[in-house]
Amino acid sequence: MTIQRTFSILKPDATRRNLTGEINAVIEKANLKIIAQKRLHLSRGQAEAFYGVHKERSFFGDLCDFMTSGPVVVQVLEGENVIAAYRDVMGATNPENADAGTIRKEFAESIEANSVHGSDSLENAAIEIAYFFSGIEIVG
Ligand code: ADP
Ligand code: MG
Q1: Ligand 1 binding pocket, CB closer than 6 Å
Q2: Cβ contacts of residue 67 below 8 Å, gap of 6+?
Q3: Nearest bound ligand to the CA of residue 47
Q4: What is the pLDDT of residue 32?
Q5: Best of 114, 115, 116, 124 for a ligand 1 pocket test (most atoms within 8 Å of beta carbon)
Q6: Tens digits of per-residue pLDDT, 28-55?
Q7: What is the distance between the alpha carbons of residues 115 and 107, in angstroms, rounded to a whole number?
Q8: d(Cα 132, Cα 86) in Å, to the nearest integer?
Q9: Average pLDDT over the chain, rounded to an integer
C-alpha cells in the first residue's frame, strides 16, 4: 500500500458551469481525499510555465488562452496509488475516448476543455504541488 499525493486542477470550463461540487463528489466517492484546495485565476505566465512541457505543441497557445479564461480550482489529492487512481477517475484526455463514469466522460466539453488536470508521475506531482501550495496549506 503506497499512499501518494497528486496535483489536480478543476479547469475553467468546470468552474464556468459551477461543477466544483459535482466533480469533488466524484473524487471523494473514488476514495481520494482532498487535502488542499483553493480557487485562483491563472496569469498567462503561470499557465505557460505550468504547461511548459507542451510549448512546442500546436495547441499550446489555445490551451493557455483556455486555462486563463476563468477561475480554476487547484487541489492536492491523497490516497493509495493516487496518481494512477486519479488518472483513472479523470478518464482519457479526449472525452470521446473516456470510459463511462469518468469525470471527462461525464463533464468535459472537448479535448481541450476537458474539465480536469491530474499529474502524470510522482516526480511531476511533487513539482506541481510545490508550484501552487506551501506546506502549511496542505492538511493530510
Ligand atoms: P492530460 O491532461 O490527459 O495529461 P496532456 O498532458 O497530453 O493530457 O495535455 C494537456 C492538456 O492539453 C489536456 O488536458 C488538454 O486540455 C490539452 N490538449 C491535449 N491534447 C490536445 C489537442 N490535441 N488539442 C487541444 N488541446 C489539447
Ligand atoms: Mg498531462
Answers
A1: 54, 59, 63, 93, 111-112, 114, 117, 120
A2: 11, 12, 42, 47, 50, 51
A3: 1
A4: 98
A5: 114
A6: 999 999 999 999 999 999 999 999 999 9
A7: 7
A8: 18
A9: 98
